[in-house]
Amino acid sequence: MGPGGADETVASRDHFSDACNRDRVVTARPSSGQSFSARGTPTPVDAESRVWVEQLRAGHPRHHQAVARLHDVLRRVALFELSRRRHQLRFVTGPEFEDLAQQAADDALVKVLDRLDDFRGLSRFTTWAYKFAMFEVSAKVARHAWRRQPPEVEEIAWDRLPNPVALRPEDRLEQRAQLDALRQAIGELTDRQREVFVAVALNDVPIDVVALKLGSNRNAVYKNLFDARRCLRARMAAAEQPVSNGNGRETGAKTDARPGSSGAAWLR
Amino acid sequence: MIDLRKLDEILRATDGDAGCVAGAEILEAYVELELTGEDPARVYPGTAIHLGSCPGCRAEHDGLLEAARRFADLRPE
To answer: Any CB–CB contact under 8 A between B37 and chain A?
Structure first.
């Protein structure tokens, strides 16, 4: 990890030309563990963060008080995040909501205490600690949503795509051609790519819920999604229905299918 | 016709995407830069790209940014 764009961890060297036809296995590369700031210079830990780390270590005279204070704020952070994600927890009642927050805070606290030596001072200690509460809430919300309402991911929500203001006959013809090209391209994805793309990109199923359904993890599912998107762009372009990117630049097979150029930094 | 902006978003797969694992490792640093008014995309361009494409990581980023603002006053005793 270093400045200037090397913030990647996942390594795989499959060529993009293969990505349309098979699903890749993702392996994580261990982090270097070096303590550098966002600018690549050694990071002095700020005074408050240093006190937090010292007090949270077992044997410190204020250990129990520091743990209790941190747990309390982690519970409030978890509760806040659960509230933000309430739309994913439609069937959760008040006491269960509080219980989820408590569990997330408990598990986040264990991780923070286990990983005190990993704190590198890239942020305030509290921001680092809150990150674990976020991760715990994410995981618990996904598990809860999966148990209560397993996703139906096979059906495509085509109505998300057409622009309702396009009413002119010539526009309808163009829309039909684009949808046909997209349908055909989706049909040519691998089973895994199609399932992930339809669920996450078209049907708004949370990516962590899809990962649970597939017995996978978010990173691997995201790679399936990334490859699916690449393939669909390439095939739309090949069918003379290219999709512009956010900068107005068309993307497709001509640039993406270059041997050895997968596009994603994590693939190199 | 298809809303091309929406389709572009649905099919977004940008060169340089750092992936979920790399983003998770430095998420607190990314958020801290935002809190201090700096542009984290200059330091972590791969993660900036990733957050534009991965709904799961984006949700965690948004939550952490908001939590770090809201619970910023916690000091050690």
So the answer is: no
Residues 146-165 of A with CB under 8 A from B: 160-163
Using one digit for the tens of pLDDT, what is the confidence trace for A150-208?
666 566 656 556 555 555 777 778 778 888 899 899 999 999 999 999 999 988 889 99
pTM for the full predicted model: 0.79
Alpha-carbon distance of A31 to B29, in angstroms, equals 15
Domains and CATH numbers, chain A: 33-148 (1.10.1740.10), 158-260 (1.10.10.10)
B11 domain-assigned: yes
Is B77 within a domain? Answer: no
In a domain, residue B59? The reply is yes
- The residue among A186, A267, A201 whose CA lies nearest residue A234 is A186
Which one of B4, B8, B21, B54 makes the best mutation probe of the A interface by having the most chain A beta carbons within 10 Å? B21
Strand partners, A244: A250
Contact list, A163 vs chain B (CB under 8 Å): 1-3, 6
pLDDT, mean of residues A130-154 = 86
